[in-house]
Amino acid sequence: MKDLSLHILDIVQNSLRAKAKLIGIEIAERPEDNQLVIIITDNGTGMNQEQLENSIDPFFTSRTTRKVGLGLSLLRQNAEMTGGAFRIESELGKGTKVSATFGLNHIDRPIMGDLVGTLLILICSPGETDYTFTYQTPFGKLELDTKEVKQMLESVPITHPDVRSFLKKMLNDNLKQIQICE
Amino acid sequence: MNKIKNLADLRKLQSEVQSKIKIRENGNTPESFIQIKVAMATCGIASGAKETMMFMIAELEHQGIDAVVTQTGCMSYCYAEPTIELTIPGQPPVVYGFVNKTKALEIIEKHIKLNEMVDGIIPVTYSNIDK
Description:
The structure holds two protein chains of two kinds.
Chain A: H1 4-17, E1 22-30, E2 35-42, H2 49-54, H3 71-81, E3 85-91, E4 95-103, H4 115-123, E5 130-137, E6 140-145, H5 146-153, H6 161-177
Parallel strand pairs in A: 1-5
Antiparallel strand pairs in A: 1-2, 2-4, 3-4, 5-6
Chain B: H1 8-23, E1 34-39, H2 42-47, H3 49-62, E2 67-72, E3 84-87, E4 94-96, H4 101-114
Parallel strand pairs in B: 1-2
Antiparallel strand pairs in B: 1-3, 3-4
Helix pairs in contact in B: 3-4
């Protein structure tokens, strides 16, 4: 993965496949601890103990179409390479939480990349999954809840190009305002 | 300082878009649209599926072509990522492999606009990739 936004897009695919109806994406920059934390939570089907233990094994997957499952192991590798940490918790029937901590100023930390593009692909999709997104920096906090957005839009679909353009501008402006890292 | 857009501004947009939608309400069922599913598993993402999807959304919108572009899971053609499944209304779906921006534009210009298939089709036998 070239950047962190691609990791986020990838990990969220696991939540979607687990039939999650609500997915949380939380990013926090903590310069005082030199940390960048990414937490993805979902209320999907969750995993049993055996699946959980195997989840970071690149040669384990719950899919039947192929033999490898690289998403979590690549995220773990990238996080640990920057002096950070990786953690996954899951409970069958309740959901899963993936946390990755990166060294914020570590030379090997992948760049954030096109975070807005990732969010738009996820948020502006026709499925029934809702998302909460928060990004905290020392300069402020951005919060977005797609349930709130859909309520405001009433019968207008969130996939509409004009809505997509609006959200793109809004996210870009607000992320610039809180001065997110590269 | 630039004015920051916030969700309150979305209310204004909502009424504008609502009136546009009413005009073209007839025949607005998903089956009447061209559908494009972009495989968005780890292999797809690492190969550029995100760029392909964003390019297709922007290009189709730019050309005024009504299409539904969505992400989907693994199509199991990891060697040929990014892959897309294109469904023209009334026709069986077609899977294309190695769809970078150049190939995506070719698919739009020839397959979608002229109904002429282009190189890069992965021969598959399935009824639905969601299975």
